[in-house]
Amino acid sequence: MRKLQTQGVHHITLTGADRQSSIDFWEGVLGMPFVFDQPNLDNPREGHLYFDPGDGRLITVFTNEDRKPVHDRTPTDPGCVHHLAFAVSLATFRQVAKRLDARGIRHSGPKDRGFMDSIYFTDPLGLLIELACYRFEPPRGYAHADVMIEAHRLRVARGDYNIQEQHLADAIELLVERSQQSLSEDRSPKNPY
């Protein structure tokens, strides 16, 4: 028996309402360029819209002009999607609450997640959307996941409840020490003062 190794999210497809409400939300609120449009090849009564969430991957939406937005919270039963999270810059994150308020969109306000900050709101169909901003940048050659696994190991070893900024900083230091050579024989902290 062998694994089916994935290499990233290819796309996520959602069931939307009508075409224009989908475009208005995904591009008009979240700024995702509308990059491709064709019929749903499995159901010719539906459209299939494609949006770029900012990393070249795709969010796609099946639309049908007979479906209208329903504002109820989408189900959170086992097997259902709880929420979708999208990355934003710190500059954007600091503007999210104000910009949602200007549109009259209710939101959670900023949430401290230790390793990132988040804010939550629902799309016009009741799907919970999270806009998230990491509190760190990984060292050159590493991904956010590399820092997260090191920070997790440090958190567990120290008996801490959740990842905090000190775990991230120490994880980044460890990764740099492993990957970047130095002419110094002793790379331990020093006090030059």
TrEMBL record:
Alphabetized Pfam families for the sequence: Glyoxalase (PF00903)
Domain VOC per the UniProt entry, residue ranges: 8-134
Superkingdom in the source lineage: Bacteria
InterPro entries on file: Extradiol_RC_dioxygenase, Glyas_Bleomycin-R_OHBP_Dase, Glyas_Fos-R_dOase_dom, VOC_core
PROSITE patterns: VOC (PS51819)
Protein name in UniProt: VOC family protein
